[in-house]
Every structure is written in structure tokens, then in C-alpha cells.
Amino acid sequence: MRYKCIVTYDGTNYFGFQLQKKFRTIQSEIEQTISKVLKQDIKIYAAGRTDAKVHALGQVFHFDTDVIMSAKRMQNAINYRISKDIYIQSVELVSEEFHSRFSVLKKEYHYYIDFGKHNPFLKNYRYFYPYSKKVDWEKFKSAASIFIGTHDFKSFTKNHKLENTIRTIYSIDFSIKDTLIIVKIVGDGFLHNMVRILIGMLLEVGRGNYTIDDLKLIMNEKNRELAPKIAPPNGLYLYKVYYK
């Protein structure tokens, strides 16, 4: 039997999602908890990895087991035992044709930028940008349009070993509330650190350190060294995963 789960987590105290031998990760916490609930070793498969200190509102994973349990009872049993900075939003019994990673149609990430006064209670959940008074936010938003479409994003990823760095970004939208700007990016997939690098470079355009033409040139050059800026992980959220 295959169970699909949607999970929310605060990534502040974790070394990312993926299992690591010497570090606490989201995957290890979930696998250990479900294994205790079902009294058998369980391996989970996620829609994608998130880095250290990155959060998720709608990460998806699945696992297989021969234990029969109602979805609601499974959800309650996991949430009762798991760390309180992780919460299973839903559990659903699905066909074995479903795969959390390979069945993905698109993903949506949100990045939180706050240009207001630093708030120590929110510092782990948004990027308090220190140069906000110098940013032309209209330039910042206009520059984002060059990333929409299908492009080679080799200049905007930390991973230099990938052969295929072509991705499609369907939309980049903005939501503004008081001093908080939420950048909403939807694409068919994202490279390692890609969203954070895009945000970092857009902020540089907003400050006048780069132009939109500079970003176009950087994209065409396919050279990571030309895009040196990266936004911190604490402002990034995996918001939703869409399936076929």
C-alpha cells in the first residue's frame, strides 16, 4: 500500500530535508517516526529536497507499507509522535503508479523579503533586507520577467555537475503586505539554490548594481561566477507541489 503525505515544516533546526548520517534532517525525523508507528523500517520519497533552514508549507512524500491503517489514524499517529516543528497536513492512500518526485507537474516556491525594521522573532522566517531603502522595487519586479519561460539556468545554480540545467518558469508574481514582499515562483523544476540565487540577483538589480541586460548576458554565458549573489535560506518556502 502506498501513502501520500503533505507535510509542513520549520527548517530552522535542520540540515535540510535529505537524509544525512551525522546531521538531523527532516527525512530522518519523519522516517524514524513512521517506523515507530508502523513497527517496521520505512523509507520515504519526497517531491524534492530543501536545503538547511529552508521551510515548507506543502512538501509531499510517499512511502510503502503492508500495514493497513486509515489515513486519518495514520496522520494522527505520526503527528502525535513527531517533533513539533513538523506537521503532517494530510495522508492519502494512492495508487502505486503515483510517485512523489516523478509524478510532479510543477512546484511553487515563495520567498519572503522584509524591508522593515528587524524583528528577532521573525528572523528565521524571512529575509530582513539590510539595503531596502536603496532598492527600486519596480526595477526588482520588472527584472523578474526575463526569467519567465524556458531557459538554461546554469549560471543560477550551485550544482556544476548537472548536464541538464534547462528549466521552465511559468510565472513570477508578487504580494505586498505592509513591509513584507512575497515573491511567488512557479516552475516545472528548480536547480540547487536556483530560487535563492535568482532572488539575490534581482535584489542587486533593484539596488542598481546590475541591469536587466546584465542578467540576460549572465544567463547566456552559463557561468555561475557571473551571478555571485544568493539570498539566505530562511526566507524560502516550498509552498506547493502540483501533480498530473
Category from helices, strands and their pairing: alpha+beta
| SSE run | EHEEHEEEHEEEHHE
Quote the average pLDDT: 95
Number of H/I helices? 5
* Cα end-to-end separation: 20 Å
**Which superfamily, in CATH terms, is the homologous superfamily of the largest domain?**
Pseudouridine synthase I, catalytic domain, C-terminal subdomain
For the largest beta-sheet, the strand count, sense and barrel status come to: 10 strands, mixed
CATH fold description of the largest domain: Alpha-Beta Plaits
Q: What is the percentage of strand-forming residues?
A: 25-35%
What is the fold's blueprint, element by element?
Layout: E1 2-9, H1 26-38, E2 45-46, E3 55-64, H2 71-81, E4 86-94, E5 104-114, E6 127-128, H3 137-143, E7 149-152, E8 166-177, E9 180-187, H4 194-207, H5 212-221, E10 236-243
Parallel strand pairs: 3-10, 5-6
Antiparallel strand pairs: 1-3, 1-4, 2-3, 5-9, 5-10, 7-8, 8-9
Helix pairs in contact: 1-2, 3-4
Textual characterization of the structure:
This protein is α+β, with helices and mostly antiparallel strands. The chain has two domains: 2-94, Alpha-Beta Plaits (2-Layer Sandwich); 106-243, Pseudouridine synthase I, catalytic domain, C-terminal subdomain (Alpha-Beta Plaits, 2-Layer Sandwich). It contains five helices and ten strands, in the order βαββαβββαβββααβ. It has helices at residues 26-38, 71-81, 137-143, 194-207, 212-221, and strands spanning 2-9, 45-46, 55-64, 86-94, 104-114, 127-128, 149-152, 166-177, 180-187, 236-243. α1 crosses α2 (71-81) and α3 (137-143) packs across α4. It is globular. The mean pLDDT is 95.
